[in-house]
C-alpha cells in the first residue's frame, strides 16, 4: 500500500510517498513557514515524481502536532481535503514521535524537543532499542527547568533530538546526554508514513496541540478565563 | 520617556523618529483607551516605514499584513478576551525575526509578549487634541 506522508508542524515542509518498506520519494524544504503556499505544490510534485496518482494512495499519514498551530492546521486541512475527496483514510502522527523514529538506531532514551516559546518546550520520552522506538511518556509541554530535572533522572545514554535541541543543549545537557546529528534534526514525512504503517487509519483525525499543563489550564479556568479545547 | 503631543502633525513627526529605530524583529506594543490615538500612530508609523498601501484598523480582522517594503504585522486585540484566543490564530508564528510586529491593545495578552518588546502607553493630554505618549526605552 502506498502512503502519502505530510509534515508541516515546524519550519520544515516535508512530503513523502512510502510503499511498504520503501521510501519512493521525499521532498523537504527548510525555507520558512509559508506552508500555505508551498504544501500543495510539494504534494503534487511528489505524487507525480513517484508515479503515484491519488487513486493509488491507500493512506495519508499527517502530523497532528505539537508544533506551530498554523503549520499543524495547514497540514491537517490539506490531508482532510484529500481524504474527503477520495475517501482515503488518514493516520494522525505525533511530530515528536516522528522525530524520535529518525534516531531509531540509537540505543537508549530519546527525548525530542521543540521550542514552545516562553522558556517552554514540547517534548516526550521514548526508548530506542534494536532499531525500534517505544514511547515512555506522552507528548507534553514542560518548562526548561522541568525538562532538565527529568533528564537528570534518566538512566543510561540520552539522545536529545528534534529541530531545536541544539539551542537548548548547553542548558539541558547532563553527563549522559548526546545531541542529535545535525542532518537528523529536521522532521521527515517519510518517517510519519513508516510509523503509520503499523497502525490504524481513519476518516477522522484530531490535532494534538499539547497545550499547557492541566494545572495551568485549571488556573485560567478558576480565574474566569475560558480555555478552548480542540 | 514621556512625549507630549499637541497635534496630529506632531504624532506624524514622532512616528518618523520612531520609524528610524524599528528594524525587522521589533515588537511594538501600544496601549491606551479608545480614541487615544493608537491607530493614528500606527498609520503614521507605517507611512514613515514606507508602506504605500492604505492602512486600515485591524479591529475586525485581528491582524493585517504588509509586505512592502518590510514584513509588518499589525494587530488589534481589542476583541480578544483571553490569551488563548490569540494563540489559536497562530500568534507565535507571527513573531518572526524578519517581521515587524505592532500590537494595539497588547495589554490583553501581556503574558504572551516577548521581553524585548517596546511598550508605548497613549493617553489624552491636558488640552483638546493633545496626547501624551509614554515610551519605554529602546534597547
* Tally of individual domains of chain B: 1
At the fold tier of CATH, the topology name of the largest domain in chain A is: Nucleotidyltransferase, domain 5
CATH architecture of chain B: 3-Layer(aba) Sandwich
Largest interface: A-B, 13 and 15 residues
Structural class of chain A: alpha/beta
Mean of all residue-level pLDDT scores of chain B:
91
Largest sheet of chain A: 5 strands, mixed
Largest sheet of chain B: 7 strands, mixed
Question: How would you describe this protein?
Answer:
The complex is a heterodimer of chains A (230) and B (139). By secondary structure, chain A is α/β, with parallel strands linked by helices. Chain A has two domains: 2-95 and 186-212, 2-Layer Sandwich (Nucleotidyltransferase, domain 5), CATH 3.30.420.40; 104-184, Nucleotidyltransferase, domain 5. Helix content of chain A is 33%, strand content 30%. In chain A, the strands form two sheets. Chain A has a five-stranded mixed sheet, sandwiched between helices. In chain A, β7 (120-129) and β8 form a beta hairpin. The mean pLDDT of chain A is 90. With 139 residues, chain B is α/β, with parallel strands linked by helices. Chain B has one domain: P-loop containing nucleotide triphosphate hydrolases (Rossmann fold). In chain B, 25% of the residues lie in helices and 27% in strands. In chain B, β6 (118-124) and β7 (131-135) form a beta hairpin. The longest helix of chain B is centred in the N-terminal third of the chain and has 14 residues, at 8-21. Chain B is globular. Chain B starts with a strand and ends with a strand. Chain A binds chain B through residues 33, 68-71, 73, 117-118, 220, 225-228, and chain B through 81-85, 87-90, 92-93, 95-96, 111-112.
Amino acid at each position: 500500500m502506498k502512503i502519502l506522508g505530510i509534515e508541516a508542524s515546524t519550519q520544515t515542509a516535508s512530503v513523502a510517498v512510502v510503499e511498504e518498506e520503501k521510501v519512493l520519494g521525499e521532498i523537504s524544504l527548510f525555507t520558512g513557514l509559508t506552508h500555505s503556499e508551498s504544501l500543495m505544490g510539494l504534494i503534487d510534485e511528489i505524487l507525480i515524481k513517484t508515479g503515484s496518482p491519488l487513486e493509488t494512495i491507500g493512506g495519508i499519514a499527517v502530523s497532528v502536532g505539537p508544533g506551530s498551530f498554523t503549520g499543524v492546521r495547514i497540514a491537517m486541512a490539506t490531508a482532510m481535503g484529500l481524504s474527503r475527496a477520495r475517501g482515503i483514510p488518514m493516520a494522525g502522527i505525533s511530530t515528536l514521535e516522528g522525530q524520535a523514529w529518525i534516531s531509531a538506531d540509537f540505543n537508549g532514551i530519546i527525548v525530542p524537543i521543540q521550542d514552545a516559546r516562553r522558556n517552554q518546550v514540547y517534548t516526550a520520552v521514548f526508548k530506542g532499542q534494536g532499531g525500534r522506538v517505544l514511547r515512555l511518556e506522552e507528548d507534553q509541554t514542560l518548562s526548561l527547568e522541568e525538562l532538565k530535572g527529568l533528564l537528570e533522572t534518566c538512566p543510561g545514554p540520552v539522545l536529545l533530538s528534534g529541530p531545536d535541541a541544539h539551542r537548548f543543549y548547553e542548558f539541558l545537557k547532563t553527563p549522559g546526554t548526546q545531541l542529535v546529528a545535525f542532518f537528523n534534526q529536521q522532521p521527515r514525512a517519510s518517517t510519519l508514513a513508516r510509523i503509520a504503517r503499523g497502525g490504524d487509519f481513519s476518516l477522522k483525525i484530531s490535532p494534538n496541540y499539547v497545550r499547557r499543563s492541566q494545572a495551568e489550564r485549571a488556573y485560567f479556568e478558576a480565574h474566569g478565563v475560558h480555555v478552548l479545547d480542540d | 520617556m514621556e512625549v507630549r503631543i499637541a497635534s496630529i502633525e506632531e504624532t506624524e513627526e514622532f512616528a518618523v523618529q520612531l520609524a528610524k529605530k524599528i528594524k525587522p524583529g521589533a515588537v511594538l506594543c501600544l496601549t491606551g483607551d479608545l480614541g487615544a490615538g493608537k491607530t493614528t500612530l500606527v498609520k503614521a508609523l507605517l507611512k514613515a516605514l514606507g508602506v504605500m498601501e492604505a492602512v486600515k484598523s485591524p479591529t475586525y480582522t485581528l491582524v493585517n499584513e504588509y509586505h512592502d517594503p518590510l514584513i509588518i504585522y499589525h494587530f488589534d486585540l481589542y476583541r480578544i478576551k483571553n490569551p488563548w484566543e490569540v494563540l489559536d490564530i497562530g500568534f507565535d508564528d507571527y513573531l518572526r525575526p524578519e517581521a515587524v510586529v505592532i500590537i494595539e491593545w497588547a495589554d490583553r495578552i501581556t503574558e504572551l509578549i516577548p521581553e524585548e518588546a517596546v511598550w508605548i502607553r497613549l493617553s489624552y493630554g491636558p488640552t483638546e487634541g493633545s496626547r501624551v505618549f509614554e515610551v519605554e526605552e529602546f534597547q
